[in-house]
Amino acid sequence: MSVCGVDIGNLTSTVALARRRGVDVILNKESKRETPSMVNFDEKQRFMGTDASAKVMMNPKNTVSQLKRIIGRSFNEPDFAEEVKNLPFSVTPGPDNEPLINVTYLGQPAQFSPQRCLAMQMADLKLIAEADQGSKVTDVVVGVPAFFNEKQRRAMLDATRIAGFNCLRLMNETTATALAYGIFRTDLPEDNPQHVMFVDMGHASLQVCVVAFKKGQLKVLSQAFDRNFGGRDIDAAVFHHIAAEFKEKYGSKGVDVSQNARAAMRLNNEIEKVKKILSINPEAPLNVECLMNDVDCSTKLTREKLEELAVSTFDRFLTPIKTALADAGLRPDEISEVEVVGAASRTPCLVRTLEEFFGKQVARHLNATEAVSRGCALQCAMLSPAFRVREFDVQDVTPYSIAFRWDKVAAGADEGADDAAAGAADGNSVTSVLFPKGNVLPSEKMITFFRSEPFAVECLYADPSQLSAGIPQQISKFEIGKFPVPDGSDKAKLKVKVRLNLHGVVSLDSVQTVVEVEEADPAAAAAPTSENGDKMETDAASGAPAADAGGEAPMEADAGAAAAEAPKKKKKVRREDVAYNAATTGMNAADLQGAMEKEYDMAMTDRIQEETKDKKNELEAYIYSMRNKLCDTYTEYVTEGDKSSFNSKLDSMEDWLYEDGEDETKGVYVQKIGELKAIGDPIEERYNEAASRPEVASNLQAVCKRFTEMATGSDAAYAHIEQGDKDKVTKECADALMWLQDKLAQQESNAKTAAPVVFTADINRKRETVERFCQPIMSKPKPAPPKEEPKPAATEEKPAAEGDAPMETEGGEAKEGMETANDLD
Ligand SMILES: Nc1ncnc2c1ncn2[C@@H]1O[C@H](COP(=O)(O)OP(=O)(O)OP(=O)(O)O)[C@@H](O)[C@H]1O
Ligand SMILES: [Mg+2]
């Protein structure tokens, strides 16, 4: 049993499994812990991860990456439209300005939503986990940047569903990191919390959060971020400088990377490598062979120069750090530790800036690229009923203030949220902030309405300044109604329950009409019941004559008693569900189902392709190996004529493989392997039989020798066995040895190129027969010695006294519970 944590990075992704013995980050098939976040669309299949990154240079237009920057975004966001221009693949606006990714797949133009592409990446991580676990892995917690808005979160959830996961939580990446940091700490204070800042410097964004830790608890105090600051910005700053230098140096030979997307990509890759070297060394060479027009380009970069070039990006670095501190209401000296994660945290200049600001060294308790997936796997284990994990309360918060808005009713009805500050009335509408920034997740709120007609409630971001440009303020809209208005009243009372769930997504949980009714207290008036029991009680309570109950009950008598003793009334609240329609940003059920089916089909195509390649490789490998063995290992076991015709068959099969058979189906390769094996297997068999025959023959001989010695020797251990039985054993062994000798002699005169006379399986069977015959005879137990008279009391065994029970009994040793509270400690 295992549950999964996934960190989808902009550059690389990791998957971790929580199992009984702890949390492991899982190696992909290249034995790497990090898998490139890429999907390549090819002529016959898709490639993921490392396979996709191997294709990006050759086929950049069909290799999709940076999906975390695309999912849940819209062309209405100016910075998104700008970002898309720099992508090597095509992203165009679809319906409602939603992005669509354009590629060529299976030789045809194809369009995919970012949800589907990200699901492909997730499904690949799922396969990596399942290959390691050896069984299906379904439950997952997926890390998302804390700044992901509702639309991005819902899109991410849709991607998990398409990938076949059951997402128990979308977890803010910094909170997952905090959990991975805190759950194993045994020194957390009981009372005064310890404040730790987490700084995650990734490829495309910077996230900061301040967390208060106490024993068994983490509480997020604040979150801040720069959505557009990451390691790639340092690469970009250096890229412009080096591109200009190369143009100046090699421009006369036609080098200008701004004119060639592939050259630009290769230069960028090289810069990223050099940047990593400069994190350790003061300078590094930068060489790109045949960058453009077969020109080798080279230069040298120093760390000093890199820092000078990227200084403008570094300037932004402290802004979210200061914001997080201010929002948490803490001074730098009140932060006991600054834990840095994300691979870009290896940039010396960024670390130096942090250390200067806080006046102390940063901490690196966690693995910079694995903390998020580990934290997610831990959270998944905590949420899964199959695990027991050490009690640890995770209190995360929303970084955005979320409000609800509805039309004001004319009369001053006392509408509004039950436990939120009164809503602000604006013209014809009321807006009430139900989940302010910093509100704990999950959280529920109730809003009361007095209405006679269907109405709408809108969910929106309360503070547009918290959003990046172009993000619509409205999150979702709920149309409520129709509903019954109680008799004698002009309005129904409605309770609307809204929830900010664990994923950080707002949903409408229920809408109910609430009617207060007075009912007879059943203890005071045991009114008869009928099918319409409620109504009967109500009628009786109101003093109305009881309805005809078929004339069986003495109704008059009861009614008379009720009249004499004024019936006691009890207030009761009746609630009835009201239908509503939710307009949210996620995919609708039909589209989601369609996407899941398409993903299944594509995965099947990939699998068949992989199996076809495996079979093709198997055929090729068979040809090579058989050709070698025919003139080497198997040479004695095949006649010259057969060897020559088999060799020609292998040659023609090889020619076919590289010509007509280059691109065949799995079935054809399987059939061709069969054709060759029909010839090759008998040769292989003759060789294998000859190679193993001496050993199995000597095993049979040894067995016969052993039993013969037992039966004919003078060993006292077998003295009790009857001579007749011993003779049978001796005969069985002698017959078996005779049989073997005869077969081996025939085999000796048989040509090595002919089918064996005796098979090793026959010899083994003979040995088993001998053992089955002789063993029961030779292991007959000795007869029991004659019984002795019981000895006097002195030797009598003392009955075990009470309390003398053995210290250890079969069931006496306490077995450890299958699941203990520290299972994942
Ligand atoms: N040794 C290093 N020195 C400096 N930068 C590095 C080093 N190693 C990796 N990086 C940079 O770190 C960034 C990748 O960080 P990380 O793997 O944490 O990102 P990610 O999780 O894929 O993306 P994100 O968190 O933005 O979604 C890249 O820009 C990479 O160049
Ligand atoms: Mg990351």
Do you know the CATH topology of the largest domain? Nucleotidyltransferase, domain 5
Structural class: alpha+beta
- Compute the separation of the termini in Å: 17 Å
Shape: extended
User: What does the average pLDDT come to?
Assistant: 88
Helix content: 25-40%
The low-confidence parts are: 525-564, 793-823
CATH level 4 superfamily of the largest domain: ATPase, nucleotide binding domain
List of distinct ligands in this structure: adenosine-5'-triphosphate, magnesium ion
- The beta-strand count equals 31
Known CATH architecture of the largest domain: 2-Layer Sandwich
Biased composition (Low complexity): 539-565
Keywords: ATP-binding, Nucleotide-binding
GO molecular function: ATP binding; ATP-dependent protein folding chaperone
Region (Disordered): 522-575, 773-825
In short:
The protein has 825 residues and is an alpha+beta fold.
Would you write up a description of this structure?
GO terms for molecular function: ATP binding; ATP-dependent protein folding chaperone. Residues 785-801 have a biased composition (Basic and acidic residues). This protein has 825 residues and is an alpha+beta fold. It is extended, with a radius of gyration of 39 Å. The longest helix is centred in the C-terminal third of the chain and has 47 residues, at 666-712. The chain folds into 5 domains: 3-192 and 365-391, 2-Layer Sandwich (Nucleotidyltransferase, domain 5), CATH 3.30.420.40; 231-314, ATPase, substrate binding domain, subdomain 4 (Actin, Chain A, domain 4, Alpha-Beta Complex); 398-511, Sandwich (Substrate Binding Domain Of DNAk, Chain A, domain 1), CATH 2.60.34; 517-548 and 558-583, no CATH class; 588-780, Up-down Bundle (Substrate Binding Domain Of Dnak, Chain:A, Domain 2), CATH 1.20.1270.10. Strands 1, 2, 3, 4, 11 and 12 form a 6-stranded mixed sheet that branches. Strands 18-13-14-15-19-24 form a 6-stranded mixed sheet. Strands 22-23-20-26-27-31 form a 6-stranded antiparallel sheet, with no helix packed on it. Mean pLDDT is 88; it is low at 525-564 and 793-823.
